[in-house]
Amino acid sequence: MTTAFDPIVLGGRRLASRVVMAPMTRSRAYGPGSEPTELMATYYAQRASAGLIVTEGIQPSVTGQGYPNTPGLHTSGQVAAWRQVTDAVHREDGVIFAQLMHTGRIGHPSLLPEGLVPVGPSAVAAKGQVFTHEGPKEFVTPKELSEAEIRQTIADFADAARNAIEAGFDGVELHGANGYLIHQFLAPNTNRRTDAWGGGAEGRIRFAVEVTAAVAGAIGGDRVGLRISPGNRYNDMAEHDPAETYEALIGRIAGLDLAYLHLMEGPDRGLTARLRKVWPGTFVLNPFTYPEVTGPEALQLVEDGAADMVAYGALFLANPDLPARLAAGGPFNSPDQSTFYGGDHRGYTDYPALAS
Q1: Mean pLDDT value across residues 142-155
Q2: pTM higher than 0.85 for the full model?
Q3: 3-state secondary structure 193-258
Q4: Is residue 290 annotated as a catalytic residue, yes or no?
Q5: Which of the following is catalytic: 44, 180, 260, 341?
């Protein structure tokens, strides 16, 4: 019987266990340049006993930033600064993937250089507010991306992936979940285009497919993961019947030989089983446990064959040595959910939001 503490080969790399540290936004890239700091190197090195670390979201371009103090991977200074993080993790024998996150319409002009505004597949504003340096502000209507701008954004993802490898990362995860740009192209309420990038499922999956293919072409599919969250309503998303869209997406990327597919699960475990069945590669599951954080009972998912690897978010914040604690059955420090962002299950149908 396979357990979560058995090693696994991921894209040619042998991981010590199947316990994944989920991506969680920390907003600690203080100062000019959106560069990672020494504090971030310490934070990730402390958690290097994870089988795989997936970093907080990293913007692949200037316009991809949607929150204050989030780091980038689009300048030489950022690449050099990330090297201190990857070196620190590797000294502890850890494996770390950079999560590339373009926030799309989620953001505010005050977070961007003069004259720039958030962008999206269509000019549809999200309901709600985003936190800025001046406090909460209403979301604005994004600029609809032109065909040329879509192509440039795809190239930005590929360039950021190359930068990630230069910075010492073992691979990248593309953030196609939680209402950010890739997810915005997938969902019919945010993608109202009538050209080849919208319409039915085949058009709406095109951006996700082409980004994934471009990044795989740039650094090798074995260094690329994709995260999805079918049906997640966070950031004012609406996907009432996501199965068709996501099965079509999986069918189109299955031949790219990716390192993994990372599912941020909703309350429909049946959909999880369907996607697990059609995905031919390594399946990482961030299980739906709302209103509780993911706990040791999730290890059973690997033993049952529901997933190849299981991702933990909040519990990793409070327990840097989480794999050892899981193996021992505890004890566990309780996470402070008032400071937690990024790996929870806010926004799924009929489930209220947790505090940011």
Answers
A1: 98
A2: yes
A3: CCCCCCCCHHHHCHHHHHHHHHHHHHHCHHHEEEEECCCECCCCCCCCCCHHHHHHHHHHHHHHCC
A4: no
A5: 180
